[in-house]
């Protein structure tokens, strides 16, 4: 089975030695992603805006791997305060409500920057069909 590693171009990926996304066969996994932009600033000043930025980035990454949001089977979100859950869930629903993948959200004490409210990871299986 072929494995393809994808980079988002973040410098830490090369330094630490990790991929943003890995595709093995028809399975696609996207690692923990925050709303940090290429210039190092954080996109969005609310949890919902940050989550929307991340999910938009996921749509682009999935496309690179030949997948769509319909192929997504699992999403995990880490928020720095469970008070943000409703806002992150609202952003999630914009992209995945009709697909209904597994969705887990947990609180974590902090992320890399104090201005980051949410980090999200995702799994997809290309070609899975909803019945």
Please specify the SSE layout and strand pairing.
Elements (H helix, E strand, L loop, with lengths): L2 E4 L4 H6 L4 E4 L2 E7 L13 H18 L7 E8 L5 H12 L5 E6 L10 E8 L6
Helix pairs in contact: 2-3
List the keywords.
alpha+beta; single chain; 27% helix; 131 residues; six-stranded mixed sheet; 6 strands
Our Rg estimate from Cα atoms comes to 14 Å
Helix/strand order: EHEEHEHEE
Number of strands: 6
% residues in beta strands: 25-35%
Low-confidence stretches: none
Principal-axis shape equals globular
Largest sheet properties? 6 strands, mixed
- Our measurement of the CA-to-CA distance between the termini, rounded to an integer number of angstroms, reads 27 Å
The order of strands across the largest sheet is: 1-2-3-6-4-5
- Please give the count of helices: 3
Structural class: alpha+beta
User: Overall pLDDT, averaged?
Assistant: 94
Bin the helical content: 25-40%
Mind explaining what this structure looks like?
- There is one protein chain.
- A 6-stranded mixed β-sheet has the order 1-2-3-6-4-5, with helices on one face.
- Helix content is 27%, strand content 28%.
- Helix 2 packs parallel to helix 3 (85-96).
- The model has no long low-confidence stretch (mean pLDDT 94).
- The chain contains 3 helices and 6 strands.
- By secondary structure, the chain is an alpha+beta fold.
- Strand 2 (21-24) and strand 3 (27-33) form a beta hairpin.
- It is globular and about 40 Å long.
